[in-house]
Write a structure and sequence with these properties.
Strand order of the largest sheet: 10-13-14-9-8-15-16
Distance between the termini: 45 Å
Number of strands: 20
Oligomer: single chain
C-alpha cells in the first residue's frame, strides 16, 4: 500500500514559516462549521473513509506529521504552558504515535466481522457483528494535554472509518494554530478539519448534529456540551476532571511513593485531569511523607523552581488567579506557596492541616498544589473516597496487597492504579474514561475504535429451514405453542442451541 505524498516543499515551508512567525489564524465561527460539516458528510457518504488502505494512509500521515514537526510542537507547547521538551516529546508526541502505530498494526483484525454463537434455526446461516463507522464526529480537546487529547481520539476516529472535525482548546493558542496549519498538509482535506473556536461557541457547533461528540475538559463545560448533544440525540463521550484521591498506607516505600506522586502532581505545572488531587495518608506516615516531599521537590526542581527548566506555568491568568485563591484560602503551606503573577508562576506547593470543607477540597484544581489529609486506617480512607463524587482516577500506595485489593474493589472510579499514577491512562491496551460525574465512555487502542464504531448485528439467512420456522406463523395453534414451549425448555439446558424462533 502506498502512502500519500508528503507535502510539497513550498507548502511545507509556508506552513512552518507562518507557525514560527506566529501569524494569527482566523477564528472559525459556527456558520463556517456548517460548510466544513457539509464537506465532511459528502466525503463520508461517498465511501471515502471505508477502505482499509485509506485509513492506514491517514494513520501513517499522523505519525509522519509528529516526527517531521517535533520541534514545532515543542516550541508551541513551550509558549503555551512553558512545557519542558521532555514532557512534550514523551507525554504528548510519543503517546499519540504509540496509539497510531498500535492502530496500524491491529486495524485489519479490528475491521473483521466477528462471528457469534448460533442456535438450531440459524445453524446454516451466518451470525455476525460488523463494525460500521458512525459518520462525522466532533472532537473537542482540553488544554492541559492539547496534542494528546486532540490526536489520540482522532486516531480512533480514523481507524474506525469516520470523518472528523477537531477543536483544539483556545487556551493553548499556539498549539491550536499549529494543528490548524499542519493537519491540512497531512490528512485528507475533505474528511478532516481543524476549527478554532471558543468554548462558548462549542455548544452551538455541537447542535449542528454530528454522529458522535467526544469532549475532554472540566465538568461545567462538559455539562453544557452534553445538554447541546442531547438536543439532537447525539451520542457522546465525556472525559471530565474532578478530585482524584491518592491513599498512602503506613506500609509503603516512602521514597519511591513520594517521587511518583510528586512527578504526577507537579508535571505540566500541575495541570492534568489524571493527576492525584489530594493525599489521604495514614497518620503514622504524615511527618515522613512531608519531609520526603520537601527533599523530592528540591531534587526535582532545585532551590528555586521558578528557575527550573523542568517546571511549567499556568496556562492563563484566569487559571493562575483561581489556583492562587484556592491556595491562600486552604490549609497551611509547608512547601512552596510562592507566586509570580507576571509569569503565571505558582511554586510546587504542599498543604497540610487541610479540612474537607476547605475550598481546595471542594473544587477542581488545575495547578501545582497538593493537599494532605490524614486518616487512621484504610476503612476511613475508603469511606472518605466513597462520600465524594466518583473520581476519574483512584491511586493507592501500599506494599500490602490486601490494602490495594480493598481500594480497588471497594471504591468506584474511571480507573485505578496502585503504586504509581497516570500511567494507566496512557496504555493502549487499557480503556480510559469516566464514570458518574467524571464522564462516560472510554478510549485508547481498540476501545477508541469501538467508541467511534457502531456494532451492527447481521443475520444472513437462507430459506432452507422453513419446516421448523413455520411454527411462528398465524393462525396460532396450541400444538405449535406446545412445540415452541418444549423447544425453549430444552434451550435453557443447552444454552440456546434448540431455540427455533
Amino acid at each position: 500500500m502506498s502512502s500519500p505524498p508528503s507535502p510539497s516543499p513550498t507548502r511545507w515551508f509556508k506552513a512552518l514559516r507562518r507557525t514560527r512567525l506566529g501569524e494569527p489564524c482566523l477564528r472559525t465561527y459556527p456558520l463556517e462549521c456548517v460548510e466544513l460539516l457539509r464537506r465532511a458528510r459528502i466525503a463520508f457518504q461517498a465511501g471515502r473513509t471505508l477502505k482499509e488502505g485509506f485509513r492506514l494512509a491517514q494513520l501513517e500521515a499522523v505519525v509522519r506529521m509528529l516526527e517531521e514537526h517535533e520541534c514545532d510542537f515543542v516550541d508551541a507547547l513551550g509558549r503555551d504552558l512553558h512545557k519542558p521538551r521532555f514532557e512534550t516529546v514523551v507525554f504528548e508526541l510519543i503517546t499519540v504515535k504509540n496509539e497510531a502505530l498500535h492502530a496500524i498494526s491491529n486495524l485489519k483484525k479490528w475491521m473483521e466481522p466477528q462471528s457469534v454463537e448460533k442456535n438450531l434455526s440459524t445453524c446454516l446461516d451466518e451470525c455476525l457483528v460488523t463494525n460500521e463507522p458512525l459518520g462525522v464526529v466532533f472532537i473537542m480537546a482540553t488544554w492541559c494535554c492539547p496534542v494528546q487529547m486532540c490526536l489520540v481520539p482522532l486516531v480512533g476516529a480514523i481507524a474506525a472509518g469516520n470523518c472528523a472535525l477537531i477543536s483544539p482548546s483556545e487556551n493553548t493558542v499556539h498549539t491550536a494554530e499549529l494543528l490548524h496549519r499542519l493537519i491540512p498538509f497531512y490528512l485528507d482535506n475533505e474528511c478532516f478539519h481543524v476549527i478554532l473556536a471558543g468554548i462558548s461557541d462549542l455548544p452551538e457547533i455541537v447542535e449542528l448534529k454530528f454522529d458522535h461528540v467526544f469532549f475532554t475538559g472540566n465538568r461545567e463545560e462538559g455539562s453544557r456540551i452534553a445538554v447541546a448533544a442531547a438536543r439532537t440525540f447525539t451520542p457522546i463521550t465525556l472525559v471530565l476532571g474532578g478530585k482524584n484521591p491518592c491513599y498512602v498506607d503506613q506500609h509503603c516505600d516512602i521514597a519511591t511513593t513520594v517521587q511518583r506522586i510528586a512527578w504526577a502532581r507537579f508535571h505540566n505545572g500541575g495541570q492534568s485531569l489524571m493527576a492525584p488531587s489530594y493525599i489521604l495518608c495514614h497518620t503514622d506516615v504524615k511527618a515522613r511523607l512531608v519531609q520526603a516531599l520537601k527533599c523530592c521537590l528540591m531534587q526535582f526542581y532545585g532551590p528555586d523552581p521558578r528557575e527550573s527548566r523542568s517546571f511549567g506555568r499556568m496556562v492563563n491568568l484566569e487559571t493562575f488567579n483561581r489556583t492562587r485563591e484556592l491556595l491562600w484560602r486552604s490549609g497551611k503551606v509547608v512547601v512552596g506557596g510562592q507566586v509570580t503573577e507576571a509569569e503565571k508562576y505558582i511554586a510546587p506547593t504542599v498543604l497540610t492541616e487541610v479540612a474537607e470543607s476547605d475550598p481546595i477540597m471542594q473544587q477542581e484544581v488545575f495547578g501545582p498544589v497538593l493537599p494532605i489529609l490524614t486518616v487512621n486506617d484504610v476503612d476511613e480512607a475508603i469511606a472518605f473516597i466513597n462520600k465524594q463524587e466518583k473520581p476519574l482516577c483512584v491511586y493507592a500506595y501500599s506494599t500490602n496487597n490486601k490494602v490495594i485489593s480493598r481500594l480497588m474493589s471497594e471504591t468506584s472510579s474511571g480507573s485505578f492504579c496502585s503504586n504509581d499514577c497516570i500511567f494507566q491512562s496512557l496504555m493502549v491496551a487499557l480503556p480510559f474514561g469516566g464514570v458518574g460525574a467524571c464522564g462516560m465512555g472510554s478510549f485508547h487502542g481498540r476501545y477508541s475504535f469501538d467508541t467511534f464504531s457502531h456494532r451492527k448485528a447481521c443475520l444472513l439467512r437462507g430459506t432452507r429451514f422453513e419446516c421448523v420456522t413455520y411454527l411462528r406463523y398465524p393462525p396460532y395453534e396450541d400444538r405449535n405453542l406446545s412445540l415452541m414451549t418444549w423447544a425453549c425448555t430444552l434451550s435453557q439446558k443447552s444454552q440456546g442451541w434448540c431455540q427455533i424462533m
